[in-house]
Structure prediction request, 361 residues.
Amino acid sequence: MSTAVASPTFVRSDKVILVGSLVAIAAAGVAHFGGFNAVLAFVVSAAAVCLLASLVGRSVEQLGDRFGPGATGVLQSALGNLPELFICIFALKAGLNEVVRAALIGSILANLLLVLGLAFLVGGLKNGTQKLGSERARTILVLMLLSVTAMAIPSVAHWVHAPVEDHEKTFSVIVSVVLLILFALSLPFSLRKESTTDDAASSHHEEPRWPVALAVGLLAVAGAASAFVSDWFVVALQPAMEALNVSEAFAGLVIVAIAGNAIENVVGVQLAAKGQSEYAFSVVLNSPLQISLVLAPVLVLVSVLFGFGALTLVFAPMLIISLLLAVILTALIAFDGESTWLEGATLIALYCVIATSFWWG
Prediction:
């Protein structure tokens, strides 16, 4: 167990993230309150969201093994979804329900196809065939498949006009509560330590450079700042979509999803490049798992409690079909315990095809 250092040490990348976050927040504030061009305000606020997500990731990283690798991974995924949570809440408040639905599916797709594909591609090209066969990774994948199936059932009931179709709001609330209970039941497994080759490799990592108080403090500041920046992001989103002629589906599926998942976009690929394929696989999959088990259910409950519009778990057929295909393909690739750079390229190609199909709506 690592001990807290006496005083913080900032390497160059730390300074880039800290200074970049401050500059981006200031620029986003000026663009928002100064009445700047909507596209410029949108781009600047999106950059601020990404940098704040990176700051959250760096702060959690500096907590090191103080809370254990399992707890740190769960904490990183949970806090990494904070910007997306705020964006979706403000989007619901603005009546952009379709953007939120597309963003939820898009976040899962971005992690399963784009980020995991990049991890497989970069790690495979640099290190050859990668091993993925940890017990934790397999369990995460099974939970991912089960939770996505549960999310899809209200949509299927709607498509076939089952009797429950007349009670979609109530049914979505019930499914959301069940998914949250499943998440709570999965925590003991996620938090326990697991002995893997990656755990052995992690013993060679550098000691945390920041004291616990600084890491936790920056987490709190980044979380609070994310709330403000997410509001500015959503305010600029709708006029930016109109100016760029982008559909709500594409904006949610691609733009909001990628902006809200900056941590996994960077961390997962970096871990794979370092040869820590099992750890990278777990980190990348933890985020979509928490989206399906926590973020989507919480947003459904928030929409009901605060009257932000009737957000249900009824998604468009194309969204659900794309989601199920992505999960099944990921499972087929991962269950043999290995991955190659070509499989990574395939996942990225599929993501590009799916994203393009939503450009027109």
Remarks:
- Confidence is low (pLDDT under 50) at residues 1-5, 195-204.
- Residues 12-357 form a domain with the A middle domain of Talin 1 fold (CATH 1.20.1420.30).
- The beta strands are 130-131, 338-339.
